[in-house]
Every structure is written in C-alpha cells, then in structure tokens.
Predict the structure.
Amino acid sequence: MLIASWNVNSIRSRLSQVIKWLEDEQPEVLCLQETKVSDKDFPYKTFENIGYDVKFYGQKSYNGVAIISKDNIADIRYGFPGELNQLEISEELHFQKRIISGLINGIRIINVYVPNGSSLNSEKFNYKVNWLAMLNEYLVKQSKRGEPTCLLGDFNIALDDNDIYAPDKFTGSIMASEIERKMLREALGSRFKDSFRVFEKCSGHWSWWDYRNNSFELNKGWRIDHIYLSNNLLSNLKSSVIERSQRENNQPSDHAPIMINLDFQENLIEFEDDDDDIFNL
C-alpha cells in the first residue's frame, strides 16, 4: 500500500503535475497540503475521473488539506473539532483549514499542514505554538481509539539538525527552534516513529527547497515533510522515499512528494478493547 504526501502550493496551479504523478506512481493514498482553494472550487471531478475518492477541507488562497484515495474514505474528521470539543478550540485555530483525517482500509490517515510561523518574534509564531499544543491534545485523544495511524504532511519543522542543509546557520531559527522541536516531539510522544529515519539516518535528504537563491540547484534544502507511523504499523513498513524529481518540474511546488510502502502480507495486530496501553503511552 503506497501512501504519499505532497504540499502542492496551490492545487489549481499544480493539478496537471499531480494527476500525472498519480497516474505514474499509482499510490493508494495521496494527502495534499496548501491546496489554496475553497471547497466549492476544489477540482474533485478530475480525481474521480481517474478512479480516486477525494475529501477536502480548504479555504480560498490559503492553507487547505485533502485526502485522495483509491479506496473508500470513511469517518472523515475535519479540523480539530473532528476530535476535540469545539469549546476547547479558539476561533482562530478553528478558522484555518490545516487538518483532516479519515479511515482507509482500517488505517487512520491524519493529514496536517502545520503553520510556518514566519519568525520567532511574530504573532504567527505564537499561533504555531498554540496550534502544536492543540495537535498534541488531538493526537492524545485520537490514540485512545487504538487505530493503526499514519500521521503525515508538511510539518514546517526540521526535527533534527540532519534535516537541514546548514544546521550551524539555521538551528535555533524558525522551523528549527528548540520550542518547535520540543512541541512536535511531545505531540508524537512514543506513539509515532519517523518512517524515513527507519531507513536513512544520514543528512542530505530534503523535501523542501526555497524558490529563492537557486536553493534547489545548489541542493540547499530542508526535510520538513514527514510521514509518521504508529508503532503497530512499523512491522509493515517496507520503504520510505522522497520523490525529489518532482521538484524539477516546470513551475513546480517548492516541496517534493514523500511516500511510504506498507506491506500487509503480515496481519495488523489485533486490538483488545480493554487495553489502555495500545500505543505504549
């Protein structure tokens, strides 16, 4: 089962690239971030025409997330209210469309677009910190159902120094600050593992390159797009890759797709209803 994630930086601008990639790679699931389109204008028919179901949660010109799947997407949960009591969520956190989840073949797919934060001394950074705190609450509550879970998307955080081409220059700055890393690690807890780092421990592998300063041509990138798996899916993980070639497209997104392969020849673990320690919390 191929599961992919791609920040497309406008689905209408990159629609032909996404469709070609889907036809070439044939993933069972593709999660998109930064679709930048309201729900009424999402081009869902184009995906349905090539055999994919689509669920989307968007807003005009900004943000937006979508799940595209060959199989039925069940139990769709839009935004933080999909898991949490709406009274617990500020209007500001609810307004931006940054998280969607659904069940596909028994796996909970959670697609996120974490705020960038702009700079450490900005109001946008305060928003990012609050958003990550809410993500933590969301994941804690979601984990209690014991679903095998794939958490993926654009996290706008390089979790370790080997996720940045020049850590001496950027560690401590936006997307690599101590507080961002700490809050993401707390949200992941012991429940999730980074699929890419299961196979590749070294630096030099990026998913995002700034449009400026010939960053892609000079390979000055960051790995800020991640696919995390709950512990009960790790034995099924066979590969995790970054599709770097898509960044070479004409008028590309600044992000490349990332993708994992899950092999289900081995059965998923059976869950016991009365087990409160399913994810070794």
User: Anything to note?
Assistant: The helical segments are 11-25, 44-48, 91-95, 123-143, 167-170, 178-188, 195-199. The longest strand covers residues 62-69. The domain at 2-262 is CATH 3.60.10.10 (Deoxyribonuclease I; Chain A). Residues 268-281 have pLDDT under 50 and may be disordered.
